[in-house]
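Hey,

Quick one before I head out. I ran the complex with D-galactaro-1,5-lactone overnight. Inputs first:
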Amino acid sequence: MSNEPAAQRKPFRRLLLTGAAGNLGRQMRGALADWADIVRLSDVAPLDDAAPHEELAVLDLADRAAVDALVEGVDAIVHLGGISVDAPFDDLLEANIRGLYNLYSAAHKHGVKRIVFASSNHTIGFHPTTSVLDADSPQRPDSLYGVTKCFGESLSRYYYDRFGLETVCVRIGSSFEEPKNPRMLVTYLSYRDFIELVRCSLFTNRVGHAIVYGASNNPVKWWDNTKAAFLGFNPQDSSEQFAGLFPLAAPTDNRDDPAQLYQGGAFVLGEPMERSK
Ligand code: NAI
Ligand code: 15L
């Protein structure tokens, strides 16, 4: 029993954030201070200096022994680390497949209770833009990158069914400062809504294995989160304020362009790349 007054105790003793040097990791870092006494930050890239409540670990997720040590002693994990775009298979294999296996096997070994996994809309990118999808819609990856995120969703399902390790797979849309093209008016997820979705995913009492789409309250919607309503995610932002960035195309424009016909946009046009090293 802790002698600390309840008001000073935080919900988690130690939280791990992977991908902490990346775009979303840098957004998450500050929020975690309110949620855990100790925040362990990890990336293969250099990290900014640690605050008193932070621990830093620069390592490659493909290094099994390093990931085992990284995960020891943490209560929960926000897993953002990995390659975040399409890439040569060998690179994806190390970061997104071997890296993910290393994380889950270490999490099981060390008794971690829950992982929030940064999945992607590219797990379903070959669904047409005329469809509205929910958590039970079949995966239709649009790239090898999307295939690795499907692997993550299946691996986490297995670790829940077999061992009870809970995961929320967040199929993030496009989380940037602002939409970069007309498609992102539909897929936009503000940084504030992203952090709130991670908070809901960490703090909802029982999540089992869940799939939730990460989009703000945008005027056009391809994704229905009714089946993940128990998470209590209620996005506050909208891409509406950015509509003026992109003049409307005439309805007949580009109707044969796969990048407009499919939810994954230009990802559907990629081809497997040669290895980078
Ligand atoms: P990012 O590319 O800026 O950050 C990913 C981080 O992972 C980088 O700092 C990188 O150094 C690190 N990383 C890559 N390979 C690694 C390895 N082998 N070992 C350790 N660390 C490694 O991407 P961003 O935007 O921050 O996205 C975070 C996560 O969310 C990624 O997993 C991405 O796939 C996913 N996501 C992001 C979306 C977005 O719109 N920002 C949309 C859908 C998914
Ligand atoms: C993703 O999965 C990528 O990580 C991000 O860089 C964007 O391309 C995003 O999807 C998107 O679909 O806009």
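Residues 12-269 form a domain with the Rossmann fold fold (CATH 3.40.50.720).

Talk tomorrow,
K.
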